[in-house]
Design a protein that fits this description.
Elements lengths: L1 E5 L6 H12 L3 E3 H11 L2 H11 L6 H12 L8 E4 L5 H9 L6 E6 L2 H9 L1 E4 L5 E3 L18 E2 L6 H15 L1 H7 L4 E5 L4 H12 L4
Parallel strand pairs: 1-3, 1-4, 2-3, 4-8
Antiparallel strand pairs: 5-6, 5-7
Bound molecules: BIS(adenosine)-5'-pentaphosphate.
């Protein structure tokens, strides 16, 4: 099964993708995560991407498409995957189609901008395994420590209020149009992403497991 998550920054794409990945045995191809790993490792891609990411801007399509094309060739993608954060522009969506890839479901998480800033400024991410928490909505058992691996929880560099507002503006201008692209293909399923985390996850699984 091939799934695409779309939705604004902080909509919960990564949070729900992690549960669905576990339940359905699908790898997550998170372009933001791959880019952050590249920045950390100091690769050529990471060096090119860093400035855009820190400013809340999108990384140029050619860099992203080369990266995704490479990742999708890996053996773990043979039976499907979850795309989280890709495609993010109309040219990226068209490139996916040109690669001969049609997703089974495009999962659209709808969350109002007014909720997003609080979500992202309160987000904490494990620097070791990448597990995501929220200081109020999804706190770890012990403050600052990952429940999964005991790693240290950190704040993402692009989760400051000013950068979140820039990311939201970029989302509305450059990413929202891909929803209409996939709607024309009859693939979009929209969910209210502002409910409780487990309720939203259950609604998504309801669709994917055919009980909805
Ligand atoms: P990326 O890492 O993809 O960031 P994003 O799209 O901005 O998404 P987020 O990871 O911020 O949000 P999310 O929806 O996954 O939310 P989460 O589940 O963590 O991209 C980062 C950057 O990389 C981009 O700005 C760009 O520069 C670059 N990039 C990446 N892909 C690219 C591409 N294809 N093209 C060009 N550039 C690209 O949840 C957020 C918080 O809310 C958490 O704390 C969580 O616990 C909490 N939460 C989640 N759901 C709920 C709920 N229902 N109720 C209460 N709290 C909740």
């Amino acid at each position: 099964m091939k799934l695409i998550f779309i939705g604004p920054p902080g909509a919960g794409k990564g949070t729900h993708a992690a549960v669905i990945s576990e339940k359905l045995g699908l790898p997550i191809i998170g372009t933001g995560n791959i880019l952050r790993e590249s920045v950390k490792a100091g690769t050529e891609l990471g060096q090119k991407a860093k400035g855009y990411m820190d400013a809340g801007q999108l990384v140029p399509d050619d860099l992203i498409l080369a990266m995704v094309d490479e990742r999708l060739k890996a053996p773990d993608c043979a039976n499907g995957y979850i795309l989280d954060g890709f495609p993010r522009t109309l040219p990226q969506a068209e490139a996916l189609t040109a690669m001969g890839i049609t997703p089974d479901y495009v999962l659209d998480l709808e969350v109002d901008d007014s909720i997003i800033v609080g979500r992202l400024t309160g987000r904490r991410v494990c620097e070791n395994c990448g597990a995501t928490y929220h200081v109020v909505n999804l706190p770890p058992k012990q403050e600052g420590v990952c429940d999964v691996c005991g790693g240290k929880l950190t704040v993402r560099k692009d989760d400051t209020e000013a950068t979140v507002r820039e990311r939201l503006s970029v989302y509305h201008q450059q990413t929202e149009p891909i929803k209409a692209y996939f709607e024309n293909m009859g693939l979009v399923h929209s969910f209210d992403g502002s409910g409780k985390v487990n309720e939203v996850t259950q609604a998504l699984l309801g669709l994917l497991e055919g009980t909805r």
